[in-house]
């Protein structure tokens, strides 16, 4: 077991969900420089691929293979990590889905599925890991969205969950102040990921990744929150495409 005292760890640890692609993958690579990172993903092969890619960088990685919407899989993946490490320094919720549908088209199954993945699973994993986060005086970082502030046509499903996620993190922040756990909400605009490519296809647009934020910039925002000194708490970060990059 890693030697630790309250709010101090010999080796810092971080659990990142949705870690095998896009924003989550960029966050893992950044945190892996100085954290043991628990690489979260549904596919064991994808999790192992990321771990192989990061081999030799920083203090190492562990697998956290689970569908975040399955309490049983999450508990099974967490148990060996909980037993190995007394505290958890960073929990990043990056897993999420973003189906598009007009309200007249959206089914009950779509509503239930997206709230399960994007909101309920965040609450459940946070609840599971809070004892270890409190030991370490850790940080919870939720990757929200600009859609957590505004909505529009075909966005009710996704924006609904992101509004709810903002409410969850706002409440958690106030609840955990006395326990020394900081809570940050990162709200990216459109990011150059495969999810963005799918969205542009849905909208009938050509996808030009240079038009959108690089995932590494969202990882940098997470790093800002995590590295803030203990006299401060980065509560909300909003990152938007600048529109200043010309296609060449």
Automatic annotation (TrEMBL):
Keywords associated with the record: Oxidoreductase
GO cellular component, one term: membrane
CDD domains linked: SDR_c
Ranges where the Ketoreductase domain occurs: 12-212
GO MF annotation list: oxidoreductase activity
SMART domains given in the database record: PKS_KR
Top-level taxon: Bacteria
NCBIfam families: PRK08219.1
Family of the protein in this entry: Belongs to the short-chain dehydrogenases/reductases (SDR) family.
The protein, known as: NADP-dependent 3-hydroxy acid dehydrogenase YdfG
Gene source species: Kocuria marina subsp. indica
């Amino acid at each position: 077991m890693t030697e630790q005292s309250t709010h101090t760890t010999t080796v810092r640890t971080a659990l990142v969900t949705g870690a095998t692609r896009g924003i989550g993958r960029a966050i893992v690579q950044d945190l892996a420089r100085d954290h043991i990172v628990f690489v979260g993903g549904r596919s064991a092969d994808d999790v192992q691929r990321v771990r192989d890619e990061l081999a030799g960088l920083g203090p190492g990685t562990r697998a956290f293979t689970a569908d975040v919407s399955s309490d049983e899989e999450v508990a099974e993946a967490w148990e060996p990590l909980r037993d190995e490490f007394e505290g958890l320094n960073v929990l990043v919720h990056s897993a999420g889905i973003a189906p598009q549908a007009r309200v007249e088209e959206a089914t009950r199954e779509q509503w239930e599925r997206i709230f399960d993945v994007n909101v309920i699973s965040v609450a459940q994993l946070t609840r599971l890991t809070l004892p270890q986060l409190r030991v370490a005086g850790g940080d919870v970082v939720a990757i929200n969205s600009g859609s957590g502030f505004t909505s529009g046509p075909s966005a009710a499903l996704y924006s609904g969950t992101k509004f709810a996620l903002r409410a969850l993190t706002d409440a958690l922040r106030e609840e955990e102040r006395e326990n020394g756990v900081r809570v940050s909400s990162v709200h990216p605009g459109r990011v150059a990921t495969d999810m963005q490519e799918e969205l542009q296809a849905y909208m009938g647009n050509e996808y030009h990744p240079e038009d959108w934020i690089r995932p590494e910039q969202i990882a940098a925002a997470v790093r800002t929150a995590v590295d803030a000194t203990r006299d401060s708490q980065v509560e909300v970060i909003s990152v938007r495409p600048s529109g200043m990059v010309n296609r060449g």
